């Protein structure tokens, strides 16, 4: 086990599924800040927050992935990520864990995984009892899509 | 060696050296026989060669090396500067710039420069195609060996002789100074340093024996000799030197050059030309020389990474936000001691703000200095004769503005050269000087910096502009008739407009001027045109001093707060609902005799919340874009405030009518409205 190449990831929750982002792309996890709405943008762009002096855009990941919107609660978190040169905060239902997963446990995404969301998924990690969906951040922050 | 660490410094310095090369080459073109300039270029090239070789950029090093060889030949008088040679050297510098650019953008700085190297090599060996070279070489070969003068222990090379000669013309005296330290002197290098301090106060050292490096390493016995240029007399210098501890003896002799004796006139043709030239070339030239002569300015500077300044600025911005919050709290509490402290803090942070903003100020020179080269090239490509005059290059602007202003200015200058200045034939036929003049002027005025580009060319032909605009479908013929001249000139900024009959690659692709206008407006600036037909045109660009901190009016609509830059607000007004009129489906008001369309903030920004039906007045901001006005209807005014402009980040680009954001005293983000986008 020890000499297997590992990937450290942040595990978070949306609806009843668990997702993961490599730690290297995460800049921090924050509680919900007051959000300033930005008019005339996509519905999943919730607005901007003041993150210690830096104005940071916020994306509702549920809406971005085509899931149902839900009221934010006590467990709602902002995962601040840096993808390409874009810094954004992702709203998730809860941040669950930081863990090491063996690289070989990650498989390419299954061909049919609910059509539209497929492009946002870079793979699936099968662990003993958990299934982690690996998020493709580049396509999440791609403003063309 | 960890290369990356040095890469940034390398790129920065290479750019500086190349810039220096460019400027000096242009200077050399004007004064082809001024060897001082050649030496400047040589020095830049030499440093560049050393640096690039150290960093492992071989192409860069080899091209610089070849260029250096040519310069060396010129410096030693084996080559005469001709426009052809300069062209090739310019070409080499272009290649060098390209390579440095490639390195800066992460490339390997490789470029096929064999052709240029070959050309340089041909010059160096004198094998140019035309025969003019042999002549030059022959003339030089006849030049007599260097004269022995007052100081037999010295061999002056051509360059040093020129320096001495020119400085003598300006009243400097050349001295041969021999300094002896005491035999038991322990810290010789320290004494040398002190002695050189004295020299630098009195004048300039042009040569030392042993060399300065050796002196610093204490590789000398107890005495050394220098050649000093100074306006002070011998005794004074001697007295000063003897004041330095452990200096035992000082001997000073004046140096007489060969030319000082009238009977010995066997100088080469070239040299004669050189001295004639420097005699005749007026006061401007002399002051240039003096600049080179002046002992180094004692103002100490340090190089700071811009990132660090940005961090400092960011931290300070945080402080400004807290300051706003504190001011608010102290007002609410009205405790006199607290008030006093907060007021004091506000004043200090105000000063601090000025200093930090000033630190980020850069002279426009950094943008301007690439223009002489560009104009020279353009003039050649277009077969025009053009003189570029630059004034106010030391005017300072915030770095954020400087970074953005380069391209628009390039467009405007190209426009002036291409469309403004006529060909020499036409100019002569119209009774103008063949050489056209383009003036690039920068100056401060109030809270703004103005940059003007003036040419003495053909000016703008109203009818041609109108005809073009009509043919492009920008406006109808009837509408055109009614326009004032100024409005007609404004048409040049509409997109898809180009008056040049022929499309050249200089300008005239029709994307130029409207892009320029947009860029300048996005910087919070303005651009205007003045023109007189047959006399010339002035483009005037007005820019804010800084983009980081701006004055805004905070307003509230629904539950949201927005900031509107004061620069686009004409005034605020409270109007009765009854005063709102309907013109077609557009609501308008009669404001001081003008019909002003109303824009409802709530609708434009889709602000949630219902209209308060009971209110019978509304708050209106009269905003403008150029000549056009609009009334922006908001719920209430909060007040005027200085805020720090923050970008929305790389993810949110192109948000409609929002130019950025700011953080308010309570930590909330407020969006800054771009009024230019609201008014069509």
Automatic annotation (TrEMBL), chain A:
CDD domains: CheW. Residues 6-145 form the CheW-like domain. SMART domains: CheW (SM00260). One of its GO terms (biological process) is chemotaxis. Pfam families: CheW. GO terms for cellular component: cytosol. InterPro entries: CheW, CheW-like_dom_sf, CheW-lke_dom. This is Purine-binding chemotaxis protein CheW. It comes from Mesobacillus foraminis.
UniProtKB/TrEMBL annotation, chain B:
Its EC number is 2.7.13.3. The modification Phosphohistidine is found at residue 46. The keyword tRNA processing does not apply. Residues 297-547 form the Histidine kinase domain. It holds the Pfam family H-kinase_dim. It catalyses: ATP + protein L-histidine = ADP + protein N-phospho-L-histidine. One of its GO terms (cellular component) is cytoplasm. It is an enzyme of class 2 (transferase). InterPro entries: Bact_Chemotaxis_CheA (IPR051315), CheA-like_dim (IPR004105), CheA-like_homodim_sf (IPR037006), CheA-like_P2_sf (IPR037052), CheA_P2-bd (IPR010808), CheW-like_dom_sf (IPR036061), CheW-lke_dom (IPR002545), CheY-binding_CheA (IPR035891). GO terms for biological process: chemotaxis. This is Chemotaxis protein CheA. It comes from Mesobacillus foraminis.
């Amino acid at each position: 086990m020890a000499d297997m190449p590992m990937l450290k990831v942040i595990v978070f929750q949306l609806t009843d599924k668990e997702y993961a982002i490599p730690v290297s792309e995460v800049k921090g996890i924050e509680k919900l800040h007051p959000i300033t709405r930005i008019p005339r943008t996509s519905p999943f762009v919730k607005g901007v927050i003041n993150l210690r002096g830096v104005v940071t855009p916020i994306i509702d990941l549920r809406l971005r992935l085509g899931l149902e919107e839900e009221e934010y609660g006590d467990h709602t978190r902002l995962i601040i990520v840096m993808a390409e040169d874009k810094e954004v905060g992702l709203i998730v239902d809860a941040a669950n864990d930081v863990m090491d997963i063996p690289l070989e446990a990650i498989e390419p995404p299954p061909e049919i995984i609910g059509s539209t969301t497929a492009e946002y998924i870079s793979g699936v990690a099968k662990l003993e009892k958990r299934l982690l969906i690996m998020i493709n951040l580049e396509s999440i922050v791609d403003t063309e899509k | 060696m960890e290369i990356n660490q040095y890469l940034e410094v390398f790129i920065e310095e290479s750019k500086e050296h190349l810039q220096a090369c460019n400027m000096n080459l242009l200077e050399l073109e004007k004064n082809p026989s001024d060897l001082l300039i050649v030496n400047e270029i040589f020095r830049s090239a030499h440093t560049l060669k050393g640096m690039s070789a150290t960093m492992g950029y071989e192409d860069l090093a080899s091209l610089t090396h070849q260029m250096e060889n040519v310069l060396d030949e010129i410096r030693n008088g084996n080559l005469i500067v001709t426009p052809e040679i300069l062209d090739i050297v310019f070409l080499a510098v272009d290649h060098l710039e390209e390579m440095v650019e490639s390195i800066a953008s992460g490339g390997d700085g490789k470029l096929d420069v064999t052709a240029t190297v070959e050309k340089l090599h041909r010059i160096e060996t004198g094998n140019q195609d035309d025969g003019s070279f042999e002549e030059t070489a022959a003339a030089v070969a006849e030049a007599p060996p260097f004269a022995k003068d007052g100081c037999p222990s010295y061999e002056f090379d051509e360059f040093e002789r020129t320096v001495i000669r020119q400085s003598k013309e300006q009243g400097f005296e050349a001295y041969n100074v021999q300094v002896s330290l005491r035999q038991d002197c322990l810290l010789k290098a320290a004494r040398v340093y002190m002695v050189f301090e004295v020299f630098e106060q009195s004048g300039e050292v042009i040569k030392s024996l042993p060399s300065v490096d050796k002196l610093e390493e204490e590789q000398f016995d107890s005495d050394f000799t220098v050649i000093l240029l100074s306006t002070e007399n011998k005794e004074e210098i001697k007295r000063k030197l003897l004041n330095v501890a452990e200096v035992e003896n000082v001997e000073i002799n004046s140096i007489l050059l060969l030319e000082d004796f009238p009977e010995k006139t066997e100088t080469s043709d070239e040299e004669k030309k050189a001295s004639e030239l420097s005699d005749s070339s007026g006061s401007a030239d002399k002051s240039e020389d003096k600049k080179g002569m002046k002992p180094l300015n004692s103002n100490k500077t340090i190089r700071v990474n811009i990132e660090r300044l940005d961090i400092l600025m960011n931290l300070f911005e945080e402080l400004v936000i807290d300051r706003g919050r504190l001011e608010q709290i102290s007002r609410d509490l009205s405790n006199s001691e607290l008030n006093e402290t907060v007021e004091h803090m506000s004043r200090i942070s105000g000063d601090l703000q000025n200093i930090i903003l000033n630190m980020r100020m850069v002279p426009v020179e950094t943008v301007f200095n690439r223009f002489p080269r560009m104009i020279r090239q353009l003039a050649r490509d277009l077969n025009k004769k053009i003189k570029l005059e630059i004034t106010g290059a030391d005017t300072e602007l915030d770095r954020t503005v400087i970074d953005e202003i380069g391209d628009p200015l390039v467009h405007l200058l190209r426009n002036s050269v291409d469309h403004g200045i006529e060909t020499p034939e036409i100019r002569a036929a119209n009774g103008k000087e063949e050489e056209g003049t383009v003036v690039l002027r920068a100056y401060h005025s109030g809270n703004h910096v103005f940059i003007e580009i003036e040419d003495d060319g053909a000016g703008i032909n109203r009818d041609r502009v109108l005809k073009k605009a009509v043919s492009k479908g920008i406006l109808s013929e009837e509408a055109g008739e009614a326009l004032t001249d100024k409005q007609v000139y404004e048409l040049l900024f509409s997109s898809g407009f180009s008056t040049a009959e022929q499309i050249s690659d200089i300008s005239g692709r029709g994307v130029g001027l409207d892009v320029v206008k947009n860029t300048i407006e996005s910087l919070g600036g303005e651009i205007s045109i003045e023109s007189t037909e047959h006399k010339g045109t002035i483009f005037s660009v007005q820019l804010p001093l800084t983009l980081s901190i701006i004055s805004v009016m905070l307003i509230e609509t629904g539950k949201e707060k927005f900031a509107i830059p004061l620069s686009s607000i004409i005034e605020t007004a409270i109007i009765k609902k009854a005063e709102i009129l309907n013109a077609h489906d557009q609501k308008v008001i009669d404001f001081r005799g003008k019909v002003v369309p109303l824009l409802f903030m709530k609708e434009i920004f889709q602000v949630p919340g219902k209209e308060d039906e009971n209110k019978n007045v509304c708050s209106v901001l009269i905003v403008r874009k150029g000549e056009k006005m609009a009334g922006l209807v908001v719920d209430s005014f909060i007040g005027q405030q200085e805020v720090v402009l923050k970008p929305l980040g790389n993810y949110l680009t192109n948000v409609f009518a929002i130019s950025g954001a700011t953080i308010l005293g309570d930590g909330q983000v407020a969006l800054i409205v771009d009024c230019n986008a609201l008014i069509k």
